[in-house]
Amino acid sequence: MSGKALFYGFVTGSIIGGAITLLSTPKSGSDVQKMIGSNVNGLIDSLSNVREQTMELKNKVEIAAKEGATTIKTVSTDVQNSIKEWKKDVEPTVADIQRSIEELHETIDQLESEIKKPL
């Protein structure tokens, strides 16, 4: 539910509630006016508090978003550095494996040529 819809619903409900109260109250007009005045002041205070809390929440969300972006950048950099270090660590092993594979190919080629020689 959007904030505007909630606000409009709140205001509409307050107006309808006020109208029903006026029509069904057994109090005198001056008593009702005083009561409405105090209720309006309470409503204005409540709306002011809601506005302040909404602004605080907005600021907190903005701060959290900025901190999240910074954290994501830091983590991304750390992961990239870790991958680079891992590649450096693995590089000698990969070279050894490639040399072993080449030696195996040479050995297989020699064995094939010896098998093909006539006896």
TrEMBL record:
The keyword Oxidoreductase does not apply. It comes from the Bacteria. The keyword Membrane applies. Keywords: Membrane, Transmembrane, Transmembrane helix. The chain crosses the membrane at residues 6-25. InterPro entries: Desiccation-related_membrane, YtxH. PANTHER family: GENERAL STRESS PROTEIN, IG HYPOTHETICAL 17707. This is Gas vesicle protein.
